[in-house]
Specification:
Layout lengths: L11 H6 L3 E7 L4 H4 L14 E12 L5 E16 L6 E15 L2 H8 L5 E4 L7 H11 L21 H11 L3 H7 L17
Parallel strand pairs: 4-5
Antiparallel strand pairs: 1-2, 2-3, 3-4
């Protein structure tokens, strides 16, 4: 059943009417918006990053007795994000789990979506790009701030030298040395008035 449906051009109604299920592994580069969030496409020596996802659909009747296609999508991947503490790469697991209900028109979807717990989408646009839908959900699941569970921010590069600091302080006050000389007593024999001649 899975092989009869193209996830890039999915006929949602037919998929739901047959109780369709798809489970696949998709390379991260095939989801370019999500790939741009990652610092790299590979996690160390592991295989290139990928997204594992699955989707299943069924027809359900509403309280009014009308049957509508429902789609349940789950996805998970690991992205290399930048830790906001140490600024080094940190692998973060990103996952999504979302239900979608499909209605006939865009106007109906817009009217019902606000009050519904599930996302309400329209069948009006034709075949569904299921991978783009999954990519949207994973983007919304990204953490606002990525951090290692336990890390220490890098220490500031500071080197203190007392002699250097003293020299810098003296440069900042060029009159300090003059003030020091002015307070020194005059030495005898220098021709000053403060000395007495011996008999």
């Amino acid at each position: 059943m899975e092989k009869n449906f193209n996830p890039r051009r999915l006929d949602v109604l037919a998929f739901a009417q047959t109780g369709g299920q798809i489970s696949q592994e998709t390379a991260l580069h095939e989801l370019p918006r999500l790939a741009r969030e990652s610092l790299g496409g590979a996690l160390g020596d592991a295989a290139p990053a990928s997204v594992h996802w699955q989707a299943q659909a069924s027809m359900r009747r509403s309280a009014g007795g009308q049957a509508a296609p429902w789609l349940h999508c789950q996805a998970q991947t690991i992205l290399l994000l930048q830790c906001q503490r140490c600024l080094q790469p940190v692998p973060i697991t990103v996952s999504s789990d979302q239900w979608f209900r499909f209605v006939a028109t865009e106007a109906q979807a817009e009217a019902e979506d606000e009050d519904a717990q599930e996302d309400v989408l329209s069948l009006e646009g034709g075949p569904l790009d299921l991978l783009a839908l999954i990519e949207d959900d994973l983007l919304m699941a990204l953490p606002p701030v990525a951090k290692h569970a336990d890390c220490t921010p890098p220490a500031p590069l500071v080197h203190q030298d007392a002699a250097f600091d003293a020299a810098q302080a003296q440069k900042r006050n060029p009159f300090a040395q003059l003030a020091h000389l002015a307070t020194r007593p005059l030495q005898a024999g220098n021709g000053g008035d403060g000395g007495e001649q011996a008999d």
